[in-house]
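ingest -> validate -> predict -> emit
validate: passed (alphabet ok, no gaps, 157 aa)
predict: started
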Amino acid sequence: DAQNAYKQQLGDVPNNSKIGEQLGEQAARLHVIPKEFPGAAWVELPKTPNGANMFDQVYELGNDGHYLIVEAKAPKGELDWRNGAGGQAQGMRVKQGTKLYVQTILTQMWKRGGEDRRIADDLFDALEDGKLQYVLVKANENAGSYAGAVLEHFKIY
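emit:
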């Protein structure tokens, strides 16, 4: 039956999981970022309760304060809007892929403290110094097999 086929294919992954989102994240981590940004070092991000208020992926580019933020999307995924926080973003709606969105997530990270705060400080310094890149990686749609992904640079300066 369908449930057994699902379990055989995906194991104990709940059927409401974001499988398409995982495809986008793996496309970024295993294909697009290593190809387009050789030597990029994965930055382990602290987990948040529901994955909100955090970037999808962050990489350190070299050892001179350059960083890369990745917004990873499923083939049909769209950039989301949210309530802004901190500085210019406070009281506004901000969209993923914008400088105000970056500032909003940094504000949330600072509030959590600890490792979140340390990473947010590094990203803020990179943003202020013009050393931060922000990209979208979106998996291509293709039923049944991996079909690559597209990379788009956001303008945050």
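The longest helix spans residues 19-36.
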